[in-house]
Amino acid sequence: MKPHELQERRWAWLFLAPCLLGLLIFTYLPILASLGLSFSYWNLLGVPQFVGVQNYTAVLNDPLFWRSFGTTWIFVLVSGALELVLSLWLAVWLNRALRGQSFFRAAYFLPFITPMVSVSLVWGWLYDPSYGLFNWLLQQAHLIDKSIPWLYDPKTALWAVMILRVWKDIGYNMVIFLAGLQTVPPSLYESAHLDGATGWQTFWRVTLPMITPTLFFVGIMTLINGFQAFDSVYLLTQGGPEHSTELLVYWMFKNAFEFYKIGPASAIAYILFMTILALTLLQWQLRKRWVMYEDETA
Q: Burial letters for 130-161: b for 16+ Cβ neighbours within 10 Å, e otherwise?
């Protein structure tokens, strides 16, 4: 190696060192520590004691774990499907030449960059059964006779959280879909128009196949974000009422910082990690059957 190349390499490592050090201290070491704690008894005091797989056994025999696991699946599937459909529809609509296009794009993306604390305060008011805007609008439209306790009824609380989640996240997915739509060659639309294809046929036969790589990426990210949802539950319902909105990450948080059961909380974290990893690998394998033009758009 020449002297100037060696010097450039030293400078590169010098600039990378702070980032790598932070990654090691704040990411990799906590991951390894939580793995060790998942096999230990520790209540934040004293020295952790190794207990083998006892934490995993206790978690898997806990009915509240399975309830939160099932609630998480409902949350991921319903809110994820709504996010994908609505964000794709918005992207297709805003990909056309229409008046105020930039304004609408910014307006729909704005909720994504707004802090969840601020959003939750506003939506808590919107859902309020006494003076909330939603109940007032529904009553004015004569759709309901009495106010709906959105966040205080086990039948509606999870739906209320999912609606908030969908509203906040569709802007991000919309931007990704817009980028994917920009890669579709205009000549394909011209050919479809000359062949007399309708709007729906053009979307189904041209647009959707061409953006399947984007759809795959958005689907993976939506799935992962759904399983990791925490802040909306913490700020709006704190898992209630009657555990109806207690998602897996929130149940893990309660075990760790309310019950001081660090071992079971770490075990829940690794069960969640293995679930997300398995689903991601499954989707990665299934992509070969429905993701088209992957090599051309990569």
A: eebebbeeeeeeeeeeebbbbbeeeebbbbbb
Question: 3-state secondary structure string, the chain?
Answer: CCHHHHHHHHHHHHHHHHHHHHHHHHHHHHHHHHHHHCCEECCCCCCCEECCCHHHHHHHCCHHHHHHHHHHHHHHHHHHHHHHHHHHHHHHHHCCCCCCHHHHHHHHHHHHHCCHHHHHHHHHHHCCCCCCHHHHHHHHCCCCCCCCCCCCCCCCHHHHHHHHHHHHHHHHHHHHHHHHHCCCCHHHHHHHHHCCCCHHHHHHHHHHHHCHHHHHHHHHHHHHHHHCCCHHHHHHCCCCCCCCCCCHHHHHHHHHHCCCCHHHHHHHHHHHHHHHHHHHHHHHHHHHHHCCCHHHHC
Q: What is the pLDDT of residues 18-28, one digit of tens each?
A: 999 999 999 99
CB atoms within 10 A of CB 174: 27
Computed over its alpha carbons, how large is the radius of gyration of the chain? 24
Q: Tens digit of pLDDT for each residue in 161-211?
A: 999 999 999 999 999 999 999 989 999 999 999 998 898 999 999 999 999
What the block records as the tokens of 214 is 């984007």
Residue 298 has a pLDDT of 44
Tokens of 219: 């689907």
Lookup: tokens for 196: 């007399």
Length of the chain: 298
In the block, tokens 């992957």 appear at: 294
Cα–Cα distance measured from residue 67 to residue 56, given in angstroms and rounded to the nearest whole number: 16
26/21 Cα distance (integer angstroms): 8
Decide if pLDDT at 297 tops 60.
no
